[in-house]
Specification:
The chain is of the alpha+beta class. The protein has helices spanning 24-44, 46-53, 58-110, 128-158, 165-195, 207-227, 241-258, 280-296, 300-306, 312-317, 337-359, 366-394, 593-616, 623-647, 653-676, 683-700, and strands spanning 17-18, 21-22, 197-198, 204-205, 323-324, 327-328, 403-410, 416-420, 425-428, 437-440, 446-451, 454-459, 466-473, 479-484, 496-502, 508-512, 515-520, 529-531, 537-542, 547-552, 561-570, 573-582, 704-705, 711-713. The chain has four domains: 16-239, Up-down Bundle (Growth Hormone, Chain: A); 279-395 and 589-702, MFS general substrate transporter like domains (Growth Hormone, Chain: A, Up-down Bundle); 397-489, Sandwich (Immunoglobulin-like), CATH 2.60.40; 490-582, Sandwich (Immunoglobulin-like). The radius of gyration is 34 Å and the shape is elongated. 40% of the residues are buried.
């Protein structure tokens, strides 16, 4: 049986359904899951891509990361304008999804090192090529993800009939769940993909795969959305309310300044100066929106802290130990703690915390909840600062600008004494080593080595900000040689830097894992090579006598550096000694969980409450304006990070965390004062009053008829 027709309309299209829901929404939910997987998967590894692939500093990586996030939250305004004024939601989603997919593909291609590494040394021949491609890809992604952001959820809501309010409400819950599911799964998977090594000529972290999978998911999202095309209810664009609001505000300001020097009656509100052109109803609705937007002014500071989970907190995790027993956590995987806790905390807060507060008869208003959320975010950064301080105590001291460090390794059969020009003297046991000793560049040009009653003295040249290893021996004769270590920072990405010193009186070949160090002469050292956590099999072959020995190495953790001294290879097996150059990361990533827990609690009481409060205080046709304003606060928050990261001269990371926390506390105080003077309104009640006033105005201006022959008089407008 066909659906009933209204007078003046053609037959309405029957929408296929399933369990009372339009089938079309399932395509939309799957599309959103794939798109969120694509976005959050790419974003999870982005800051590490900047730091370790493009070789940018921590500050530059953070700045570009937050520039990208800010752009992602500025472009929704453009997407809403295009959808509502020109193309409609369906065509806008299709068009910008194509842009989005191309951007993800370009970013993935930019991370393929072999394309720009002609000499196969692991470094692009023209560094600008991957940088430019990456920036093009990110701009396209920002246009795509931001542009479709305000369209997809609204397009899903359009699929329901007026009598399906219950189903529409459940759809938005399912839609939100798909967002979190995509975010959670992608932030687990893409760091694993990044952790693999790939490459044709030079093996590196597999960023092409980490970016390629999100690109493939975005292509799937586009395909799924197009596949449901014939089932969608497509609403034609009817004009953008944000444009109308902007024009009304602009006219009011222009009109007010136009008559500022003339004698005109004062008006209750500055927006009332738009009455000459715009209806009272529109002006009243804009006033309601402006009151909420005024409260938005302090909110960007919250997002400035919240979005550092993907930048500063991820970089913090690179200096920590990801060993969780049978599970090894990558630094970028710690971001999964937030969506996991969100899924747990939202129902706990709604069903347990808020009811308990109500039973205590505390007036926990939405604005008070948001205030608490902001304070919790500040507390999370204080906890992050405490964790950072603990990390700093475990980090080695590296030489400053006019300093250098020397470590002594005694490869001889006897104890030795080493005297430096500066007057310092150290004793080193046989096959033992010292810690790194600090020296000023103004000293230490001659070093003398004493074994028993024999001494040699040799001059050496040193440079500032450098580490050296002095290897000495008394086998056959006293020898001393200086090695330039080159390790002046913690190994990147939690890797371990390993080198070998040959203390056998013969040339040997050394292999560790899949890395061949090649032939190493007596009293010589290899360069450092990077190895991931775990045990690696060491194989030593002595070409002179054909002897070969092997054994597993000790268990390497995260971020360490070792010099392994090969002492023997014979019938008794392989004998090696380990000298620790840089200690492994010892602070567990588990210590980041409290700060993630606190900031997730902050998100629940701030973000969820903020959106609910905003919608409750605005008329129905103005909710898109508030949505755009809310997204704009996220963008401005990321811009704040750019400004502070670029302008601050703070060298200690913990101090920067404290600075952000302090700024948020100060802003929270301002917000609390603004909230104290805010008066809650009921938009439905105001709407009813406006309808009543319009009705009376219409009756007042109704034309007067006589004998049905036509109008004879009309009230002056």
């Amino acid at each position: 049986m066909g659906m009933p027709m209204e007078k003046g309309q053609g037959p309405r299209k029957s929408v296929p359904g399933c369990f009372g829901y339009p089938i079309s929404i399932f395509f939309i939910v799957i599309n959103e899951f794939c798109e969120r997987f694509s976005y959050y998967g790419m974003r999870a590894v982005l800051v590490l891509y900047f730091k370790y692939f493009l070789q940018w500093s921590d500050n530059l990586s953070t700045e570009i990361y937050h520039t990208f996030v800010a752009l992602c939250y500025l472009t929704p305004i453009l997407g809403a304008l295009v959808a509502d004024s020109y193309l409609g939601k369906f065509k806008t989603i299709i068009s910008l999804s194509i842009v989005y997919t191309v951007g993800q593909a370009v970013l993935s291609i930019s991370s393929i090192n072999d394309l720009t590494d002609g000499n196969r040394d692991g470094v692009p021949d023209i560094v600008a090529i991957p940088v430019v491609l990456s920036m093009i890809g990110l701009v396209l992604i920002a246009l795509g993800t931001g542009g479709i952001k305000p369209c997809v959820a609204a397009f899903g809501g359009d699929q329901f009939e007026d009598h399906q309010e219950k189903q529409r409400s459940r759809f938005f819950s399912i839609f939100y769940l798909s967002i979190n599911a995509g975010s959670l799964i992608s932030t687990i998977i893409t760091p694993i993909l990044r952790g693999e090594e790939c490459g044709i000529h030079v093996k590196q972290k597999c960023y092409p795969l980490a970016f390629g999978v999100p690109a493939a998911l975005m292509a799937i999202a586009l395909f799924v959305f197009i596949a449901g095309s014939r089932m969608y209810k497509k609403v034609e664009p009817e004009g953008n309310v944000m444009v109308q609001v902007g024009k009304c505000i602009a006219f009011a300001i222009k009109n007010r300044f136009k008559y500022r020097s003339k004698e005109y009656p004062k008006r209750e509100h500055w927006l009332d100066w738009a009455r000459e052109k715009y209806a009272k109803r529109l002006i009243t609705e804009i006033k309601m929106v402006m009151r909420v937007l005024f409260l938005y002014i302090p909110l960007p500071m919250f997002w400035a802290l919240f979005d550092q989970q993907g930048s500063r907190w991820t970089l913090q995790a690179t200096t920590m130990d990801g060993d969780f027993g049978p599970v090894q956590i990558q630094p970028d995987q710690m971001q999964t703690v937030n969506p996991i806790l969100i899924v747990i905390m939202v129902p706990v807060v709604d069903m347990l915390v808020y009811p308990l507060i109500n039973k205590c008869r505390l007036n926990f208003t939405p604005l008070r909840k948001m205030t608490v959320g902001m304070l919790l975010a500040a507390l999370a950064f204080i906890v992050a600062a405490v964790v950072q301080r603990q990390i700093d105590t475990t980090l080695p001291t590296f030489p400053a600008l006019h300093e250098y460090q020397i470590k002594v390794i005694n490869l001889g059969n006897s104890n030795a004494t080493v005297n430096f020009t500066s007057g310092r003297s150290v004793d080193v046991t046989s096959l033992g080593s010292t810690d790194y000793l600090d020296f000023d560049t103004a000293h230490l040009y001659n070093i003398s080595v004493t074994y028993g009653d024999k001494t040699i003295s040799k001059p050496f040249a040193f440079e500032g900000e450098q580490r050296y290893t002095l290897e000495i021996t008394d086998v056959a004769e006293i020898q001393a040689d200086l090695l330039v270590d080159g390790l002046t920072a913690k190994p990147e990405q939690g890797n371990n830097e390993i080198r070998f010193i040959n203390n056998l009186n013969s040339t040997i070949n050394i292999t560790m894992g899949d890395t061949n160090f090649g032939a190493v002469e007596y009293f010589s050292a290899t360069n450092y090579s990077s190895f991931q956590r775990g045990e690696k099999r060491i194989t030593v072959m002595v070409p002179f006598n054909g002897q070969s020995c092997e054994e597993p190495s000790q268990l390497f953790g995260y971020g360490s550096a070792y010099t392994i001294i090969v002492e023997g290879c014979d019938g008794t097996g392989l004998r090696v000694t380990y000298s620790e150059d840089i200690p492994p990361n010892s602070v567990s990533m588990a210590w980041q969980i409290p700060q993630y827990f606190i900031i997730t609690c902050a998100e629940v009481v701030f973000s969820v409450t903020g959106l609910s409060f905003s919608y409750s205080q605005a008329p129905n046709n103005m909710k898109s304006v508030l949505q755009a304003g809310w997204l704009l606060t996220v963008a401005v928050g990321n811009i704040i990070v750019l400004i502070i990261a670029g302008a601050t001269t703070i060298s200690e990371q913990w101090a920067e965390y404290v600075l952000f926390a302090g700024l948020l506390v100060a802003v929270t105080i301002i917000f609390a004062i603004m909230a104290y003077f805010y008066t809650y309104v009921d938009p439905a009640e105001i709407e009813a009053q406006l309808v009543e006033e319009e009705k009376k105005e219409k009756e007042k201006n109704e034309p007067v008829f006589k004998n049905g022959t036509g109008p004879v008089a009309q009230t002056q407008m």
